[in-house]
Design goal:
Blueprint (H helix, E strand, L loop, with lengths): L1 H11 L2 H14 L3 H19 L1 H11 L12 E7 L20 H11 L3 E7 L12 H11 L7 E4 L5 H14 L7 E6 L3 H10 L5 E5 L11 H5 L3 H23 L3
Helix pairs in contact: 1-10, 2-3, 4-10, 7-8
């Protein structure tokens, strides 16, 4: 039940949904005073959610920064979280990524640079209904094509969310003879705070390694960034709200 709620609740508070709600209220409400303030609020929210500067600065503050390879020490295990694939696209004879392919590509880079010795991929099916091949299996397919030996890849392919990964991965690490200090946790920068909170709640404290950054450099700021509405800003807000709602929901049920 929580899996279904976690996949649907966030859409109810997405910026586009909120803006649409205010626009509809501006049409439905008859009283002139309330109608005026609802329309003003809708316009303010539209500016807020499409302002590139505001969205980018919030994302920069939320994302956890990464580190250069040259400053890293080797780790025995790299734990990479899934959740970035299109699971129901046809034909199904290939691997389809959405945005977060960095989770695979950078994990492979870490392995080939000798910064991780083994790779543990965690993630089951991301579909609410219907059958789908676990994402961990699909991640492995991509890594094998990139030249990673099958012998160094391990799968945890039952978890349906980050909280379940945090519960299922530590026993596998312990069975391998390692501890949390031997592990590098690899996931998208916007998702790392919730991931670390879940693992730490489970008593497991891996070292974070963030990939797949959404925030852009401040060097690109110009007059358009501050004044003109941008679709990219709406995308950043979508990611942020989804993570914030997820963090609150996880806190309510005791996952973090």
């Amino acid at each position: 039940m929580f899996f279904i709620l976690s996949k649907t609740l966030d859409y109810l508070v997405m910026p586009t949904t909120v803006i649409l709600l205010f626009l509809l209220l501006g049409i439905v409400v008859r009283k002139g005073r309330w109608r005026k303030w609802i329309r003003v609020a809708g316009l303010v929210l539209l500016f807020l959610f499409t302002n590139d500067f505001i969205a980018n600065e919030l994302m920069r503050a939320w994302e956890i920064d990464t580190q250069p390879y040259s400053a890293m020490e080797p780790y025995p295990v790299g734990i990479v979280l899934t959740g970035v694939m299109v699971g129901d696209r046809e034909p199904d004879d290939r691997v389809y990524f959405s945005r977060g392919a960095d989770r695979v590509v950078h994990t492979v880079q870490l392995y080939k640079r000798g910064l991780i010795q083994k790779i543990l991929i965690s993630g089951g099916s991301g579909l609410i209904s219907g059958e789908s091949r676990p994402e961990a299996d699909r991640f492995r397919d991509a890594m094998l094509l990139m030249g990673v030996p099958d012998s160094v890849i391990m799968l945890e392919n039952r978890a349906q969310n980050t909280a379940q990964s945090a519960l299922l991965v530590p026993p596998m690490i312990e069975e391998m003879g390692y501890t949390d200090t031997d592990c590098l946790l690899i996931t998208s920068a916007f998702h790392m705070r919730r991931s670390l909170a879940c693992f730490r709640k489970a008593g497991f404290h891996p070292t974070p390694f963030t990939v797949d950054f959404y925030a852009g450099s401040r060097k690109r700021y110009n007059l358009k960034t501050f004044l003109l509405p941008q679709l990219d800003a709406l995308i950043l807000w979508h990611k942020l709200v989804k993570e914030w709602v997820g963090m609150v929901a996880y806190w309510v049920v005791g996952y973090v």
